[in-house]
Amino acid sequence: MRKEKKECGVSPEGLGRRQFVNAAALAGLAGLAGCTEDKKNAAAAPAAPPSAPQAGASKESQLSPKPGQLDEYYGLWSGGHLGDVRVLGMPSGRELHRIPCFVPDPLVGWGITNESKAVMGTKPDGSLRYAVADTHHVHGSYKNGNYDGRYAWINDKINCRLARLRLDYMICDKITDLPNVQGFHGIFPDKRDPVDEKINHTTRVFCGGEFSTPLPNNHVGDPEGKDYHSIFTCVDAESMEVRWQVLIDGNCDLVATSYDGKLAATNQYNTEMGLKYEDMMSAERDACLFFNVARIEAAVKDGKFKTVGDSKVPVVDGTKAANADPKTALTCYVSVPKNPHGVNASPDQKYFVCSGKLSPTCTVIELAKVLDWFDGKLEKPDGAIVAEPEVGLGPLHTAFDGRGNAYTTLFLDSQVCKWNIDAAIKFYKGDKNSKYVVDRCDVHYQPGHLNASQSETVAADGKWLGVGNKFAKDRFLPVGPLHPENEQLIDISGEKMVLVADHSIRSEPHDFIIFKREILQPKQVYTLDEFPLATKDAKDSGVFRDAKNPHKVTVRITSVAPAFSLREFTVKKGDEVTLILTNLDKVEDLTHGFAIPFHNIQFIVNPLETKSVTFKVEKPGVYWCYCTNFCHALHLEMRSRMIVQA
Ligand code: RUQ
Ligand code: CUA
Ligand code: CA
User: Fold this and answer.
1) By the 8 A CB rule, do 174 and 194 touch?
2) Which ligand has the minimum distance to the alpha carbon of residue 396?
């Protein structure tokens, strides 16, 4: 206790500060929000870089950091059917933050405030369009083959929405609906432009539609589904508008992109176009479907597209029959054994790897050869396959260490298989002595996704491998019928994999990425200019009745610990109130909340943030609005009174 006070620059003997009984001392109370003086300084200068910890720190201390120690990596985890994105410190696995996007989050007021509702989308009556979502895949924006820390994207499989996260404030800022799609599953940002050399960063996000429907989906179509189709979508990374779509044969599952920007691909498990699972697994081989991005965009430019239903989005024809001539083809179907799941790009920029799922193999496809096919230099698309190593039962996803090794989850075997790509290629070429399986590691249990630190970037560093296990069974204290999932961590820095940690996690995270913390520089205080509605001066607070519409009232209010600018405000029964709260506290970590009893209002405002809510007041009375976020020694006293007159 004493020591902490010293660090705050307050003398432990400072009895004046400690015996805060008079009004003068009250002013000093701001200090109780925590070291205000230091924080003021910190707010003036850019946030100080976190103290560099463990260069050379032991593995143990990286896994269980000492108090005050920071992690070396960020992790972004999909929140599954909780519909959010989780931010973890890695390798400790500490959860640092959740970024709400598709579904309401009562902590921050996501889905309550007008600003979040505008991002999420509302019905004409102002209520949210959807209360559910199912996020699977989170991926970051790239520059020069590595993450650049600008954006991340995440899909909602249920309602076919793509959300963008601004990583500077770690918030969701845009959500786009994909037309003509059902079961929006895989996503991947491109890594550079296929034509313009100067564009060396992400400008597109590709999205795979997994289910097929009649198009437009406004009639029941053929009972056997003969006129059903799936669609692959390209969204503009900046505007978040849908740029174009491709009608395909078969379905889409996950998505990968090449480092040169020329190719995007999706693995297909239902080339049969089956409606029942038995039919979906009737063929021995399915496919990895490649898209020639530059050609598709040229076709769109030349007007060689249709539109579907009410949507204005150009849809080009990517079906097999329309793309038989390689010289003009927009798509290339490379066959892959039985219901593959997952397609991943190796960090050496050369290969895409599909995991076999119902085949015990992975399929390695050489990208240069796919481009050869498009140039008419390779006879058959399948000539691009350079290896089909046998890895074990139920391969689902593959990650890389940047040293030529791949790591594939084996769902049925409950294992991760480490295998060497070059050795697998040699074996496939005929050298039957080439041993490509390097190691196996049991995981607990039934792994789905896995990812290694920096895996799908040119900076893959081969240090840590996270494994998302779908079943936890006996790994944790029992908590009733719903078990947590088990996210395990494997040290992959050596030849042998070493399992080092179990982390219980709430269902159902799916995919994640792990990257060096230097890539992100999140801002910890907003600027007032970010918010058009901000009340920049507490003096501008007040109740403003609309001259033309006397039942519409705007309440402007600001917060500075431990008080709201309006200690009370009066409105009338039947009013529609828009309350705009600006937090004028500018020190880091000084967040306030605002709750209004019986009106379904609760949200928080971070330093210099502005949020607004609109609600109706129906019942005369007194309502104590109060701060919900512990901000100050007088946090409980931080209130305002909403007086509703009859
Ligand atoms: S999927 S367990 Cu939605 Cu990413 Cu493969
Ligand atoms: Cu402001 Cu608690
Ligand atoms: Ca199949």
Assistant:
1) no
2) 1
Ligand 1: centre distance to CA 264 (Å)? 18
Q: Is 435 helix (H, G, I), strand (E, B) or coil?
A: coil
What's the confidence (pLDDT) of residue 22? 53
The percentage of residues in the chain with a pLDDT greater than 70, rounded to a whole number, is 91
Q: Are 382 and 335 in contact (CB under 8 A)?
A: yes
Per-residue pLDDT tens digits for 228-277: 999 999 999 999 999 999 999 999 999 999 999 999 999 999 999 999 99
Backbone torsion region of residue 635, taken as left when φ is above 0, otherwise alpha when ψ lies between -120 and 50, otherwise beta: alpha
What Cα–Cα distance (Å) separates residue 543 from each residue in 531, 569, 575? 20, 7, 12
Residue located via tokens 């054994």: 337
Report how far residue 154's alpha carbon sits from residue 186's, in angstroms, rounded to the nearest whole number: 9
Helix (H, G, I), strand (E, B) or coil at 487: strand
| Composition of the chain by helix, strand, coil, percent to 5 | 15, 40, 45
For ligand 1, pick from 160, 251, 397 the residue to mutate: most ligand atoms within 8 Å of CB. Answer: 397
**Residue 350 C-alpha from the chain's centroid:** 26
Other CB atoms closer than 10 Å to residue 273's CB: what's the count? Answer: 17
**Ligand 2 neighbours by CB, cut-off 6 Å:** 561, 592, 627, 629-632, 635, 638
Q: Which residues of the chain have pLDDT under 50?
A: 1-17, 20, 24-25, 27-50, 52
Phi-psi domain of 636 (left: phi exceeds 0; alpha: psi -120 through 50; beta: other): alpha
